[in-house]
Design goal:
homotetramer, 166 residues, DNA-binding, Tetracycline Repressor, domain 2
DNA sequence: CATGAATGAGACTTCATTCAT
DNA sequence: GATGAATGAAGTCTCATTCAT
């Protein structure tokens, strides 16, 4: 908290006028970042286009966001991997909000059209976002450098995992 | 440390007879768990069988291990997402040790045989293990319940992501 | 540290706003006391007067300071006899700062005038200050009570040890 | 205590068969060293010879002992400068035992003969041993190197401090 | 409203001592 | 008698939070 106050150029006590305590600050910051992330992913969403195209839009937008906002990405990740984020997950996938809803809708459609495997939503989430998160982390840690081509190929490969083999 | 001592039913100072300090304890515990994990994955490895079969072996063994040892899994995950594990990642993938080596060898072979997409190793790792980790976490948090069938289908889907589309 | 905080009537953590850690506290306190001691010894220094008179000034001022500030004296002594003060000694005698410089200059002059024995500086330090410190300690411990006359006679005797026998 | 046990090649608990506790060990070790020191100083003591000669014997023996047994010397010094040694001092000078007695006898005689200044015993102790201790410390710390000549000159200078100026 | 000095619970660690073997 | 694993009080230090100014 002291460090945050200093970087913010305010007194240590001032933070507590805006956030009840450290936990609240952490949670609110997360929620703000999440809103930003969701908004970015929704930008230019190709409504009405084939399932595959919409999937690729979401995947590439997400991966690009993570690697171009490394601090935000690390924060979101750490949040998810902390006690704070434990309860979060279920709500997120089950709720009808923002990004998640978009993706769930997409899958539902895909399953109905038989272009997507008939698997539980959690499995689809894992197949679609697991690799993206993992790779974004590697990029942020400097273990690999992702260019536009690699981003596209990766998301395409995720699609291959999800899509129904005809 | 106090909590560990209490759960172990020993005095606070006793821990320090076995571990120089907190960091050493954390690191050694991780290394022990990792050895256990690698050993499990290698059990019954179908050497000589097709790439796909070997891939499915590794994937399912890993996923089963994670959900049947939820505490170990959570610990390993947290370790990776902590300052301790920061440097670990690159070494792990680049080194020729244990599990990683097995998997790298598999990919190399798969790429040579043109049954696996020609992508960088980090991308393959992400495609193969990202979903497994993500799903294991969901299972451990109680968000989904994986049975043997779902485990198999998930790893199969990972294979679909990795394999070359003919 | 707990005891210091309590005697200071502050919380345990408050000390660390003023001193980075225990070592810094100990060192800074010493430096402050030393400055005070040196300033006292320099008060009314009879520049230009004979070597003997200047020597007596330093010796008596020092001895008086030690017995009138027993806590300061004990602290300085303990500091010198601790790992902190180990390296201090050589620097002190060799450096050209404060009190030490005054004394070294005095000796040099005395040796040139042949009123002081031609011995290494460390020996002179020992002859001049060894007895003063030893006696101050005795006084502080209540083993002897020094009055103005005894102070003078003692320092005079130190001078007898240092001065050249003609 | 652990370190002592290890260097002694015994178990940690074994020490407590020979010493009730740490304090007792420290005190007994000191007493042993002191006996050794006193015995050394008394070796070849020139009973019946002039006061000056006897004084020089004690002083040089003492100084030589300190610099040739640096560890013993440091231990004795630290002991004196610790809470243990606080009470010790008075007893030592006032008691009629060993070394101290020898020295007190010497002074008494010297004062009677008017070859030694008529000063309290504590002052004489300071004048005689203060410089020796101080210089021994410097030698042990490597700040100065004492040879036989310097040892003699130093003790002679101590004598000059003590002796009556005729 | 903002400040930042003060707080004190709690974290990690050490070490003299004990006691079952 | 000897051992050394276990102990736990006490030490240093951190940091989220408060409150007088």
């Amino acid at each position: 908290m002291a460090e945050i106050a200093e970087k913010a150029g305010v007194g240590a006590g001032t933070i507590y006028r805006y956030f009840d305590n450290k936990d609240v600050l952490i949670i609110q910051l997360y929620q703000e970042l999440e809103r930003d992330l969701v908004a970015t992913v929704q930008e230019g969403f190709p409504t009405g286009k084939p399932v595959r195209e919409r999937f690729l839009h979401i995947g590439t937008k997400l991966l690009r966001y993570c690697i171009s906002h490394p601090l935000y990405f690390r924060y979101i990740e750490q949040y998810h991997n902390s006690p704070y984020g434990a309860s979060l997950r279920k709500d997120k996938i089950m709720d009808k909000s923002g990004d998640q809803h978009l993706f769930k809708q997409l899958l539902k459609e895909g399953i109905a059209e038989r272009v997507v495997k008939d698997l539980p939503i959690f499995v689809h989430f894992a197949l679609a976002f697991g690799p993206v998160i993992s790779l974004a982390r590697d990029h942020v840690l400097g273990l690999v450098t992702l260019d536009e081509e690699l981003i596209f190929k990766t998301v395409e490969a995720c699609w291959d995992g999800i899509k129904e083999n005809t």
